[in-house]
Amino acid sequence: MYFTKLTIISAVAGIIMVTPTKAQTSKAELRAHLELASGNYCNYPTPSGNVTPAPAGYEPFYVTHYGRHGARYMTDDDAYKYVIGKMDTAQIRGWLSDKGKEVLKRVRLAADNAWHRDGDLTRLGALQHQGIAHRLATNYPQLLMQPVNVKANSSTVRRCMLSMANFCQELKSMNPKLNITMDASEHDMYYLIPNDSIFIPKSDTDGALYDKLDKFRHEKLNGRNQIAMLFKDPKQVGEFVDGYKFANALWNIASNMHCLPELGWSFNDLFTEDELIDGFRVYNASWCLWEGLMPGSQQNYYAIYPLLRNFLDEADQLIASGKKEVRLRFGHDSVVLPFSFILGVKEAINGTDDMENLHNTFAIFRLIPMAGNIQLIFFRKQGSDDILVKFLMNENETSVPIKTDCYPFYHWKDVRTYYRNMLKKANITYKKKKS
Length: 435
What we know:
Blueprint lengths: L4 H9 L13 H6 L25 E11 L9 H15 L5 H17 L8 H17 L1 H4 L4 E6 L3 H17 L4 E5 L5 H4 L13 H15 L3 H7 L12 H14 L16 H18 L14 H17 L3 E7 L1 H11 L29 E9 L6 E6 L2 E2 L11 E3 H15 L9
Parallel strand pairs: 1-4, 2-3, 2-4
Antiparallel strand pairs: 1-5, 5-6, 6-7, 6-8
């Protein structure tokens, strides 16, 4: 079947939910917006649409951005291999229930569709970046409808390069006068992905938190319901199928279907609503710990400080030049999440080691949905050297822990001082190279 751009956008509009605006995320809210329970597989939520006008006389002259790639296939086929391997053997041995036989056929179809597409951008992923670009140009025409330079670069991973291309192509279609340059090189990877040459301070409590997480994951994704549903005798397969691995693989398969709406497939029938939400809670806690955002964890976000320095240095250079520009960077959720924490955006700073209730104050679907992004919009006024900047998290105006008398705008002199001091206090050091 041939899908036009309009057809797919219409279909997507029917499944994308608007993120609840409350800071907390109760189970009741997640049940009402169950698609959000797919966590970092979540489709890009429709932004609020609120664009606060700049103070009188101020106009946008610079955008600096970092965005995650759009919707994608799973980055490997491990989940498919585990589920099919176990269920195929069980079928040969006559252990599968009728439901199991039907589900195995569905999983095989999904695996066939994903064959040799590990991590590839989906059609929806392309549309997500086209939509973000379109809104950027629409919201700030004083900048984007002029013949300005647009400098874009991406991680060398294919889905990031294609996300960049779709974003830039949409900008060009709206304003052919834009001078757009795109690049994807190892030269820039030191700030586009976590920099593994940076020394990360150790934490004495990190190991205990990982033990706690392991217990939490096995408790919430235990697979008992799925095994009872798909096999004739759960006891018979007790040692043959690892309940956690099985449920975890199926949850990832089910969640990834949100990235492929054109297929019309779902595996949500293998989980209760609470089980789908428990999968989200597992990955919500995992990401919070992995990136060092959980109190007591190793501060892995140190590996993102080169991106902060890049943001500051390039902004200072552009401001000094007196020019206008759009600066775009495309990468991964493993950067957007810790970068939002470093910046101190309100959605990212309330991590806790209470994994049972973490979702009440911290939710990855607010931060790293597919195509999740951070934008800083700069404004200036003729005859004034007071530069203003606005922070956007997934295109929604947000706050950072810097004093301001004109929220949602901040004075750049205060912003740059705050983050320069942060870099100084971090005292970033690099690992010694092995001789």
